[in-house]
Prior knowledge:
Elements: H1 13-25, H2 31-46, E1 54-64, H3 69-77, E2 82-89, E3 94-104, H4 105-117, E4 121-130
Antiparallel strand pairs: 1-3, 1-4, 2-3
Amino acid sequence: MEKIKRMSASIPTNLFEEFERTRKELGERKRSRAIAEAIYEYISINRWMKLEGKIDGVIVACSEKEGMESLFEIEEIFHDTIRSCFHARLSSSSYLWLIVFSGESKRVKELAKRIAREKCIKSLRVFALRA
Length: 131
């Protein structure tokens, strides 16, 4: 049997309440199991940052319409890394971006950081794998 570690964390009340509501809606009875799953998800989402060398993947971002012109400028700057870029209107003010990349991890990290800094970006995820 795998060893178990006990931990303690302090989080804002509203975050805890939302977590509890979501856990119960999903039918998860054990809080520890839901927390372990959340930690695993955190690790999975950020694991790509440790990759080195050539990596391939996709950046998924949601942006506001206002200010998204900067994303077209970024596409030009990172033409050596971006293989394809697609955006679709979700509403009158929101867009979904899929940016397919292939390149050196250092350059991809620069690309992701540059996109994330833009004021129009509401959320961003990077899905990457070693080429």
